[in-house]
Design goal:
Blueprint: H1 9-15, H2 33-100, H3 102-110, H4 114-123, E1 127-128, E2 131-132, E3 134-139, E4 144-147, H5 159-171, E5 175-181, E6 184-194, E7 201-210, E8 220-223, E9 236-242, E10 255-261, H6 266-315, H7 329-433, H8 439-467, E11 475-478, H9 479-496, E12 499-503, E13 509-512, H10 514-530, E14 535-544, E15 547-554, H11 588-599, E16 602-608, E17 612-620, E18 624-625, E19 645-649, H12 653-665, E20 669-673, H13 676-685, E21 692-696, H14 705-718, E22 725-730, H15 735-743, E23 747-750, H16 755-765, H17 773-776
Parallel strand pairs: 12-14, 19-20, 19-21, 21-22, 22-23
Antiparallel strand pairs: 1-2, 3-4, 3-7, 5-6, 6-7, 8-10, 9-10, 11-13, 13-18, 14-15, 15-17, 16-17
Helix pairs in contact: 2-6, 7-8, 7-12, 8-11, 8-15, 9-10, 10-11, 13-14
Region (Disordered): 1-28
GO cellular component, one term: plasma membrane
InterPro entries: CheY-like_superfamily, HAMP_dom, HATPase_C_sf, HATPase_dom, His_kinase_dom, HisK_dim/P_dom, HisK_dim/P_sf, Sig_transdc_His_kin-like_C
Length: 783
């Protein structure tokens, strides 16, 4: 639709502003008032800037002049201090050389003609470096021998000075002080005389120098340690420089002080203020004239915009355009004024476009929300599948762990039977061979058997911990005693490898199971020693917030990060692919982890390959207690086995034969049975009551040693005989079997047992008994 013609009614309705009238009077333009205001504001700003610049120049110039003047004073003070240092050093050096001249010192004492040739020589030193000096040579009692001729005046050495000298001679070393006489400060110093015959102090040289005479600057003074500096006069500045003097005078704390007048500013102000005033007046005049001209030029376009706006307000918009001049802010205003009407016309079109865009965006958002919902549903399904897979994997892992435990238990039991027979037969063979040449072979066999027994014992420890049959015996434990014991045990072993082993002494006392705590620390020390070939191993503890940390540092091979989480698993070793027995069995750290969890502790490790490792055992703070005296408990040495009778019940003929031979070698009689019925038959046939019953836990036909012992005890009680000491031997490491055996109340020994264990059992059973055998088992420590 074509626009109405200019001047028509429709055109006026669209272009005219609301409230505008065709007959409204035309506004008259302003007549340059904005330019005058701009000039006045510029003039006031110029005055303010001139005042600020003038004040800044005055402050900066004054401070610069003050700093320059103070630097000059410091330079003069430093120069005077260096000159004074030279004078003091010259005097001190000259006097010290005179005192060190043993020939002169000897001549002063021994020469009968010293008055003829020494007196002129000494008088030549009444001035040193143009400074008057009084010197007196004395003997070792402080009595004058010779001087340099100054006997009168304040510079002469007074009786009080000689009394001070005698104290210095008594001390036997050079001394220096500052004395005040007749309003003058003097440096009073003494040097010891060394004779060539004795090479020891046999006299002294005292010298006295006025302090002011050593200062070459007329306005400087010397201050010392006991002197309070006088106040600085008004209008003056003072600079103090410490003097670098010989060590003999260092205690005097000599300082040179130089006073000088303050900064003279009168001459500075006499020429600066008039010059600055003229420059400021000229600048302000130029600012006003220039600002007025610039204001007129800038407001020309504004006046034109004012006329254009008045015409549009009166007549309406008829396509007028503002004139655009240049590229400044006023030109930008004119350009914006021209674009204003075009922008108003474009607003509606832009609104329609935005409405269409909003509809499109809402549709897109709805589609994305639906897609996100579908993806979330898929994620939930995937998460459920992952959870089910994790549950299945956990079940598989638990079955595998149970199968591993069952396999280890079965394998351990089957291995312990022949190992037990080998141990017993080997011990019996060693006793019977005595000094026979073949006895060395028995030692080798026993060493191999010890390695195999350690493996079986470690498996047993793991099984006992898994079975929950280990109960902590909490009591007061001295951590320092454990550290000292381990250091005494491992220091020589470490030294044989070229490793230094140290423990940090500590007085910490805590509530813990001493045996289990020491087992944890010992296993960690063993592990550090096993993998450290050089450097050192350090055992110590330190308190942290909320816990006590026991740490074992080593400089061994270290552990890679990917192995840190697995080193506490059974049979896992990082650097032993050939399964070398010298590097352990891979069970020590697994036992440490289980013992720590049993005691409520936490064990962790930090390591760097080829740098070393640090194992840390964190013990909670409530376990700590105040230091207390802990009575050392010493193990009672078992007595020698006596002569008695033992009943052995075991279905394995080799084990039964080995136990029989070993017990007979100790001088005992043995009844050997393969079942409970056989044991009861032997008891009926014999008239003597056995002192000891040893029964295997597993017997033939599903019977157990517990049942056999109970049957023997019942038969003996029926006959009125006393109950013997009863011991159960077992090779089982299954957690449930261990728990059942421990719950029986009888003494439990785990295969393989050694000859010393059998000897201890015989010693215990030979003691007088007053109760049932199951109660006597407590007299012997558990494995």
């Amino acid at each position: 639709m074509p626009d109405p013609e200019p001047g028509s009614a429709g055109h006026r309705r669209r272009g005219a502003f609301p409230g505008a009238s065709a007959n409204a009077p035309r506004r008259l333009p302003t007549s340059g008032r904005l330019a005058r205001r701009f000039a006045l504001v510029s003039l006031m700003l110029g005055v303010l800037i001139a005042v600020l610049i003038g004040a800044s120049l005055y402050v900066v110039s004054s401070r610069h002049l003050a700093r320059q003047h103070h630097a000059n004073v410091e330079a003069n003070a430093t120069l005077a201090a260096r000159q004074t240092e030279g004078v003091v050093n010259t005097i001190a050096t000259t006097v010290r050389e005179l005192a060190d001249n043993s020939v002169l010192a000897t001549a002063l004492v021994d020469s009968a003609g010293k008055e003829t040739y020494l007196a002129p020589f000494l008088r030549s030193f009444n001035h040193i470096a143009s400074v008057p000096v009084a010197m007196v040579f004395t003997d070792f009692e402080g009595e004058p021998i010779a001087d340099n001729g100054r006997h009168s005046g304040a510079l002469a050495v007074s009786p009080a000075d000689m009394a001070w000298l005698r104290k210095a001679i008594a001390a036997g070393r050079p001394a220096a002080t500052v004395v005040h006489q007749d309003g003058t400060h003097f440096l009073l110093a003494a040097e010891m005389l060394i004779y060539s015959r004795t090479a020891s102090p046999e006299g002294a040289l005292i010298y006295k120098v006025p302090l002011d005479a050593m200062v070459l600057h007329p306005e400087a003074m010397l201050l010392h340690a006991n002197e309070t500096p006088p106040p600085v006069p008004d209008g003056m500045v003072a600079v103090t420089i410490p003097l670098k003097v010989p060590d003999r005078l260092a205690g005097l704390d000599l300082r040179l002080r130089l006073e000088a007048p303050g900064v003279p500013t009168a001459a500075f102000l006499s020429w600066m203020l008039p010059a600055y005033g003229l420059a400021a007046a000229a600048a302000l005049l130029a600012i006003y004239v220039g600002s007025r001209a610039v204001g007129n030029h800038l407001t020309r376009s504004l006046r034109e915009l004012e006329r254009l706006a008045g015409a549009i307000a009166t007549d309406g918009f008829t396509g007028q355009r503002a004139t655009v001049r240049g590229n400044d802010e006023v030109s930008a205003l004119a350009t914006g004024f021209n674009a204003m009407l075009d922008h108003i016309a474009a607003i509606q079109r832009e609104r329609e476009m935005r409405a269409a865009e909003e509809i499109t965006i809402q549709r897109t958002l709805a589609e994305r929300a639906e897609q996100a919902r579908a993806e979330a549903e898929g994620s939930r399904n995937e998460a459920e599948r992952s959870r089910q897979e994790a549950v299945m994997a956990l079940m598989v892992a638990e079955r595998a762990n149970a199968a591993k435990t069952h396999f280890l238990a079965a394998a351990s039991h089957d291995l312990r039977q022949p190992v037990q027979s080998l141990v017993l037969l080997t011990s019996a063979l060693g006793i019977r061979l005595g000094d026979h040449p073949a006895a060395s072979l028995v030692g080798s066999i026993e060493a191999s058997m010890d390695a195999l027994c350690r493996l079986l014992d470690a498996i047993l420890d793991i099984s006992k911990l898994d079975a929950g049959t280990v109960s902590p015996n909490v009591q007061a434990v001295s951590l320092g005693a454990i550290f000292a014991r381990l250091e005494g045990e491992y220091r020589l072993r470490a030294a044989e490898k070229g490793v230094a082993f140290h423990s940090v002494p500590t007085t910490v006392t805590l509530n813990a199971d001493p045996a289990l705590l020491e087992r944890i620390i010992r296993n960690l020390v063993e592990n550090a020693l096993r993998y450290t070939d050089h450097g050192r191993i350090l055992l110590g503890c330190r308190r942290t917030r909320g816990s006590l940390s026991i740490q074992i540092h080593d400089t061994g091979i270290g552990i890679s990060p990917e192995h840190l989480e697995r080193i506490f698993h059974e049979f896992y070793q990082v650097s032993n692919p050939t399964r070398n027995r010298g590097k352990g069995l891979g069970l020590g750290l697994a036992i440490v982890d289980r013992l720590a969890r049993l005691l409520g502790y936490r064990v962790h490790v930090a390591s760097r390959p080829d740098k070393g490792s640090c194992f840390t055992l964190d013990i909670p703070t409530p376990a700590l207690r105040a230091a207390a005296a802990i009575t050392a408990q010493t193990a009672e040495r078992p007595p020698e086995p006596g002569r008695g009778m033992a009943l052995v019940i075991d279905d394995d003929p080799l084990v039964r034969e080995g136990l029989t031979l070993l017990i007979e070698d100790f001088g005992w009689r043995v009844l050997a049975a393969d079942s409970a019925a056989d044991a009861l038959r032997l008891l009926r046939e014999g008239s003597k009551t056995p002192d000891l019953v040893i029964a295997d836990y597993r017997l033939e036909a599903g019977a157990t040693g517990l049942e056999a012992i109970r049957a023997v005890e019942t038969a003996l009680q029926a006959q009125g005989r006393p109950s013997p000491l009863s011991v159960v031997l077992t090779g089982d490491t299954a957690p449930q079997r261990i728990a059942d055996a421990e719950a029986s109340g009888y003494r439990i020994l785990h295969k393989p047992i050694a000859a010393k264990d059998v000897a201890q059992l015989l010693s215990l059973s030979a003691r007088p008994q007053g109760s049932a055998g199951r109660n006597l088992g407590a007299a012997m420590p558990q494995d």
